[in-house]
Design brief:
Layout: E1 2-8, E2 16-22, E3 25-32, E4 35-40, E5 54-56, E6 59-61, E7 68-70, E8 86-87, E9 89-92, E10 95-100, E11 106-107
Parallel strand pairs: 1-11
Antiparallel strand pairs: 1-10, 2-3, 3-4, 4-8, 5-6, 6-7, 9-10
The chain binds FE2/S2 (inorganic) cluster.
FE2/S2 (inorganic) cluster (FES) is lined by residues 43, 45-48, 62, 64-65, 67.
Length: 108
């Protein structure tokens, strides 16, 4: 596992989501009320781009069919058994890093 730089803090204002691509995979980086979380970028429903979704009332909303996920836990709002894969996040010197299994350390 290695932390990989995915964005600058300024790229993800409060209550927005950012799509980051690392090694051919996409990730949805959420800022909900100042809390940063990193989730898988593809929606479990049908592969929608969660990083192109919206944050509404603490939930990440998929842009395709509006499934909603808790921004802190990744749990689906309707079916608690559906949960997004999450990745550790850290910030350093104004940059956001996520810990991706098998990734090389450095810049995305
Ligand atoms: S693909 Fe996300 S709600 Fe359908």
């Amino acid at each position: 596992m290695a932390f990989v730089k995915v964005a600058a803090l300024g790229d993800i204002p409060t209550d927005s989501v950012f799509e980051a691509a690392v090694g051919g995979n996409v990730y949805a980086i959420c800022n909900s009320g100042g809390e940063l979380r990193a989730f898988q970028g593809e929606c479990p429903h049908a592969g929608g781009p969660l990083g192109e979704g919206t944050i509404e009332n603490g939930r990440l909303v998929c842009p395709w069919h509006a499934w909603e996920y808790d921004c802190l836990t990744g749990v689906n709002d309707f079916d608690q058994d559906v949960k997004l894969e999450s990745f550790p996040v850290k910030t350093q010197d104004g940059e956001i890093y996520i810990d991706i299994p098998g990734a090389s350390a450095g810049t995305a």
